[in-house]
Specification:
With 187 residues, the protein is α+β, with helices and mostly antiparallel strands. It is built from three helices and 13 strands; from the N terminus they run βββββββββααβββαβ.
Length: 187
């Protein structure tokens, strides 16, 4: 580990850490983490060592057991849950992570609960509806589809149930690279 200048507080108190791991179906990955000892800024990312083709993964979550499916999302990955109308897009502050499908639902739930406190009255009903759906999904009572798209092929879903395919040129063109967005698309 070495100290670097923190992008937030500008002090030389940023700890950089990098390690490699072998992940089944993916091969060797690099996990990069940074943490400022002064202001507590944190950033993490996951990179594959190998160059890969642009990929899309799709899995139908039909039971509670499916929620344990491992998901690797690099900072370039987009997660889509059509039944919720939710898209989690990458951007300059995006972080890679390794979690399971339930962990993704927990992240969505946290954002929705925050929105309950900050949204205007007319959007509160929609947020509450989404929270109720997420709860049913987390309890295995509502099936859904999880799609993970990565233009650099550094993300994936580790499951025999997951369907993997190459992204089309059109899909690549439509993937956003703006700031992280938890977007509620219109249904």
């Amino acid at each position: 580990m070495e100290l670097a200048i923190c992008p937030v507080c500008k002090k030389q108190s940023l700890l950089l850490s990098m390690r490699t791991e072998e992940i089944p179906y993916f091969g060797k990955i690099i996990i990069l983490t940074t943490r400022c000892e002064n202001c507590k800024f944190k950033h993490a990312d996951v990179f594959t060592v190998e160059i890969k083709e642009p990929l899309s993964y799709k899995i139908r979550v039909e039971c509670e057991e499916d929620l344990n499916t491992k998901v690797i999302r690099s900072s370039s990955g987009t997660i889509i849950i059509p039944e919720l109308g939710i898209k989690i897009e990458p951007g300059t502050h995006a972080q890679g992570f390794i979690t399971n499908i339930e962990g993704i639902l927990e992240r969505i739930e946290k954002v929705l609960k925050f929105q309950l406190k900050t949204q205007k009255v007319k959007k509160l009903r929609k947020v509450k509806e989404l929270l109720a759906k997420v709860e049913k999904m987390r309890n295995g009572k509502l099936g859904f589809t999880l799609i993970l798209k990565d233009p650099f092929g550094n993300s994936g879903i580790i499951s025999k149930k997951a369907k993997k395919r190459r992204l089309s040129k059109r899909e690549l063109k439509n993937l956003k690279t703006g700031l992280i967005i938890l977007e509620m698309t219109k249904k």
